[in-house]
Amino acid sequence: xxxxxxxxxxxxILISSVLTVTSRRILRAAVYLLFMLLGSAGLFFMLxxxxxxxxxxxxxxxxxxxxxIFSVMLTSQVNEKLEAAGIKKSLFSLIAVAAGTVVCISAxxxxxxxxxxxxxxxxxxxxxxxxxxxxxENGYALPFEVISILLLASMVGAIIIAKRxxxx
Length: 168
Fold this sequence. Notes:
The chain is mostly helical.
């Protein structure tokens, strides 16, 4: 049963990803992106990475998609179609995808994955609080700052993409 759910999630992620980058309507692309992010959160749940799945749902699927959708709705006509990608853009996109795939596969194949120890971690409230406030090893302050910058960048990017030239 888990294998069937895995294949359903992967198929949904792949279809949503392709629809996200090929859709000419920006609001539909944002909704397809939401489905892709929900599918990846489902994969995290299947791997028992509950915290990562919750972060995926709240930060990415919740925060970024809401920012993108509101930015699009505030700055653009929702029914407006984006221009179709020309053959030159499609060719460069295909080259970039192939290069990214080669880099990712070679990095995964050449990385020596260390064995995981099953030592118990101290999970007291004090330890968790210190890790949330720490910026050193095993600290989470830096990732939270990076996420806040990511949210800001996604808002600015969504506004730039959605803003249309009204003089045409």
